[in-house]
Amino acid sequence: EAQVTQNPRYLITVTGKKLTVTCSQNMNHEYMSWYRQDPGLGLRQIYYSMNVEVTDKGDVPEGYKVSRKEKRNFPLILESPSPNQTSLYFCASSFRGGTRGVGELFFGEGSRLTVL
Amino acid sequence: AQSVTQLGSHVSVSEGALVLLRCNYSSSVPPYLFWYVQYPNQGLQLLLKYTSAATLVKGINGFEAEFKKSETSFHLTKPSAHMSDAAEYFCAVSDRRRGSTLGRLYFGRGTQLTVWP
Question: How far apart are CA A111 and CA A11, in angstroms?
């Protein structure tokens, strides 16, 4: 089954304790992206990757890191989480280029993170 | 940069009534436009997309949207609402970049659709 898998789905942590949210897709997609969703603000892009070893900042990259060492994985790292990073996080992937892949993002089910 | 404005953060309709969710965009060049739907406790899924072919785009679950360049709009409609349509809907615009047809995707703030029996 084609899917984007995020882990953990739910996490409560404390300020400053490093954490990683994993994202894996099994569709051989080149493009992967992280978003955070906050009430009234919609989805805001954190980082995205056009292919292996190619990453770029989105609209709200501060406090986050990413890496793309393999095509299927795109982990989101919070080196020193703070309460303002409490949010619902989504990973998404897509084919890059061509009408087939234009904008058709496939989303994971989300990871709800609470930073105390 | 692109931007998307969704008019109305909440829309309520009766079952069987017309659904109209509004989306306006700003872009210096003709963009690609999308509507995504998010059901409770799920990720987003694509409803439909406009990529400069036909201006009236049909999507899943009976939804359609019309691209109107003169109004910079891409409103989502459905003739008859169903209880199962209750969800949050997001309009999104993609910039076009040489060498990539995906680039960045900018989302509106979402419209929560409630359907009353």
Answer: 8
- B85, A83 Cβ separation under 8 angstroms: no
Q: pLDDT by residue for chain A (116 residues), tens digit each? A: 889 999 999 999 999 999 999 999 999 998 899 999 998 898 999 999 988 998 989 889 999 999 999 999 999 999 999 999 999 999 999 887 555 455 688 999 999 999 99
Helix (H) or strand (E) holding A36: strand A31-38
Residues of B with CB under 8 A from a CB of A: 9, 32, 34, 36, 41-46, 49, 51, 90, 92, 94, 99-102, 104-110
R_g over Cα of chain B: 14
Which backbone phi and psi does A55 adopt, to 5 degrees? -130, 160
Q: What residues does A89 pair with on adjacent strands?
A: A36, A111
pLDDT 10s digits, B15-53: 999 999 999 998 766 678 899 999 988 889 999 998 877
Which tens digits make up the pLDDT trace of B2-15? 789 999 999 999 99
Which residue of A105, A109, A111, A112 is the best one to mutate when testing the B interface, meaning the one whose CB has the most B CBs within 10 A?
A: A105
Q: Which of A81, A95, A62, A71 is nearest to A21 (CA)?
A: A81
Tell me which residue in B43, B90, B102 faces A108 most closely, judged by beta carbons.
Answer: B43
- Residues of A in CB contact (< 8 Å) with B are 4, 31, 33, 35, 40-45, 48, 50, 58, 90, 92, 94, 96-99, 101-105, 107-110
